[in-house]
Amino acid sequence: MTGGVLFDEETLRERVRELGAAIAADYAFDEPLLIGILNSSAIFLADLARAVSIPSELDLIALTPYDSSGPNRAVRFEKDLDVSIEGRHCILVEDVVDTGLTLQYVVRALRSRAPASVAVCALLDRPQRRIADVPIRYRGFEIGDHYVVGYGLDHRGRFRELPAIHLFEQWPNTIKGG
After folding, report:
1. Of 175, 177, 137, nearest to 153 (Cα)?
2. What is the pLDDT of residues 119-160, one digit of tens each?
3. Where are the domains of the chain?
4. Which residues are catalytically annotated?
5. What is the CATH number of domain 10-64+74-144?
6. CA-based angle 103:106:107, to the nearest 5?
């Protein structure tokens, strides 16, 4: 089911350390709020939070998935933030940026709450699939049009526990139904 390793554990660890250092340098005099999108960004968010060497706070949101083929195409919050972001520097932590449509919705929703700033930190970026223009300030890796699992990324709830990021061999045929 899973194919070869795209990014091994050490490569992931080193890149997350670099992202954490960049965030710490950029927000040295602030206490940023790291906002993770459940469920797939949870492992990345935890590792990133430990790599940010300045005081920061964490919060989580959960979204309905964007479904371009279904009758309910709208994205909406299933779990909202527990803290106010007014006047705060926010970093939205995302696993994979594809079309950018979901991310665009979330960034707009957060900006409507008057934060000091909203930046995006994405572990993986597939720019060739981009529809919506969403700036990614902190980018882990750019990948091709591959479906991947591991390090929190799943296929139908499976493979999140893998410590490395693997290519998923059965994509796209197995994705169409769910």
Report:
1. 175
2. 999 999 999 999 999 999 999 999 999 899 999 999 999 999
3. 10-64+74-144
4. 98
5. 3.40.50.2020
6. 85
